[in-house]
Amino acid sequence: MSTLAATFTDALDGLGVESTRTTAAGFPDALAATVEGPAVGTPLPFDGVSLDGADVAVPPTPDQLRTAKTGVTPVFGGIAEYGSVVVESRPEGDELVALYPERHVAVLRESDLVAGVDDATDYLRERFEAGRDSAVLATGVSATADMGATVEGVHGPREVRVIVLSDR
């Protein structure tokens, strides 16, 4: 395990976020262990890894999104120091699938980890210059997830799990 991956895992542990490190070959089992149905997801753009064959609705209908317990999305970066993940806004609906269900399963390539916020800012600047226009930096569970009726709209996940792909 790389130093960045070890730092990231330690930060996630400190946040109470479960993580699994796996290869593409082990991904279906790692995913099955993290998903509680009904589940929705967005396509995973990582070679050799997909949600095909999983009990995950891709793409979800609005009704499936509203009733989902788990949302599975790719994340396009991770900040090792804080255990943060970068959820980009894609037409596939990553932000919605990450924020609506009670559990978010973030799928991340180990090679997309950066050490700190300065590195993430440089990374995001490059992504925005290439045409991306929105990203959410998520660290642990949502601070409003337990506030119920006192907060209107999307509360964010009550639980986060991260699957780190070590061979991508």
TrEMBL record:
Superkingdom assignment: Archaea
SUPFAM superfamilies assigned to the protein according to its UniProt record, in alphabetical order: NagB/RpiA/CoA transferase-like (SSF100950)
Matches recorded under InterPro entries: FTHF_cligase-like_sf (IPR024185), LUD_dom (IPR003741), NagB/RpiA_transferase-like (IPR037171)
Domain LUD: residue ranges: 63-165
PANTHER family hit by this protein: LACTATE UTILIZATION PROTEIN C (PTHR43682)
Protein name stated in the entry: L-lactate dehydrogenase complex protein LldG
Native species: Halolamina salifodinae
